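Q: Start with the shorter request: fold the first protein.
A: Done. Sequence, then structure:
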Amino acid sequence: MPTFQIIEEKPVAMAQVKDSLEKIKERDKELNFRAGKTQEYMGVFVEMDAGKAAQLLEKLKALNIPRVKEEHLIKFVDLLPASPEEIKLILQGSPITISKENVEKIVEAITEFKK
């Protein structure tokens, strides 16, 4: 039995997963059971396409907020929080704190993108 080795772990936005699944479906004509269920989930919960998600991620990265990692930014892109309270809820599971000014910058960037 072959052994697998993880080479790299990288967070991916749900919009990118949805786009990848669509490309795989075009290539293979159908998806396996798990991929099909994942595509159904993405169809319900993903609000934007992969291009817009990538643009928003770049805009959030450009804010250069200290202590916020790419995985947090991906969660912001996936969930599109509309208020500072929602951002605090997303970050609640992480041992980081962000200043009110930076939280407002994140909310502002996301609301600009939602319009």
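Q: Next, the second protein, separately.
A: Sequence, then structure:
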Amino acid sequence: MDANTAQLLSLAVIAVAFYLLMIRPQQKRQKEHQALMASLVEGDRVVTIGGVYGTVRTLEDSRVGLEIAEGVIVEFDRAAVARKVDQ
């Protein structure tokens, strides 16, 4: 192999490694988060990305109303929900 071929081959290996280590896992996490957003229903217990725990009381296209204390409902952007909490 000459020097140009070796450089191109090493660049290709770096690009493949970057895809496998960075881009693909991020896409997987994004798909999982979208599935979580689609599966939310009223009554689910969730935690937001800010660490606020609450129960889903209202669902709109881009908002979710969380009851964080009895009678206290706070609206969050739907994307702010990090995960469901096992009850």
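Q: Describe the second briefly.
A: The chain has a mean pLDDT of 93. The chain has two domains: 1-39, 41-87.
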